[in-house]
Amino acid sequence: MPSSQTSLRHFRPSTIALVFVAGILGSACGDDPSSPPAGAGDPENISHVIITLTPVGGGAAVTSEIIDPDGTQLPDPPQPPSATLALTKGTVYNGTITLLNDIDPNNIVNITNEVVNEANFHRFFYTITADPLAAPDSINIPPADPTRMITIDNLNTDTQAPPQTLGTTYTVTVDAAAPTTASTTLNVQLHHFEQAKGNGLGTTFDTDLAVNFPVSVQ
I need a surface site. Which of 18, 105, 141, 173 has the fewest CB within 10 A? Predict the structure, then answer.
């Protein structure tokens, strides 16, 4: 699962997936939340992924972004993450993820809105890969081990009955006893299902997004 490489790829078979360190490839789906999005409309490139963590109770937001200047269709490599997500011990953050196609500044498309519109076919996963108490290859949201030093939970949900995890918003909690480190990584994945996803833990899916953001704890 999480690794030193990151990628975001089309789930359309005709697209050749490119893999880079902190790379991005992507597509958007159709807009009808009641039917599978596969094949609905033309693919939209994801050229910009933004993570924003805002301290609960006030304080400056922590932000990092990954930009692929030409999106999925042209070969220019993506840029590395713009910043390390610098977290503070004993702090809870409200988190958001934003996916954009902003290759054309005059026609910016918010791909996150399209994912929300088709929430029943998508699920985000957030994994702290260097957490000393987490298995390095696990995707486990919310974490089964409540003693982990950095937990990611309270993910927003879809429109199924009962509602299931989507994950365009979430909370990040840094334990007051968390070790100081500059080498932690936040792995973010977006899984896309051709049929309604259920709980999103099934094994038949396409990985629309897989990116790594550096994290420090102070």
Answer: 105
94-119 per-position pLDDT tens digit: 999 999 988 889 999 999 999 999 99
Whole-number Å distance between alpha carbons of 164 and 68: 31
Q: What angle do CA 137, 143, 145 make, to 5 degrees?
A: 95
Q: Rounded to an integer, what distance in angstroms lies between the CA atom of residue 38 and that of residue 40? A: 6
Q: What angle do CA 26, 216, 70 make, to 5 degrees?
A: 25
Identify whether 142 is preceded by a cis peptide bond (ω within 30 of 0). Answer: yes
- Tell me how far apart the alpha carbons of residues 179 and 194 are, in angstroms, rounded to a whole number: 41
d(CA 149, CA 134): 9
The bridge status of strand 206-217 relative to strand 85-87 is parallel
Nearest residue to 100 via CA among 92, 109, 88: 109
pTM over 0.90: no
Distance CA 35, CA 194 (A): 9
Strand partners, 122: 192
Residues 6+ apart with CB under 8 A from 138: 1, 127
- Secondary structure tally for the chain: helices H, strands E: 1, 10
pLDDT of residue 209: 78
Q: Which residues of the chain have pLDDT under 70?
A: 1-44, 71-75, 130-148
Contact 205/193 with Cβ under 8 angstroms?
yes
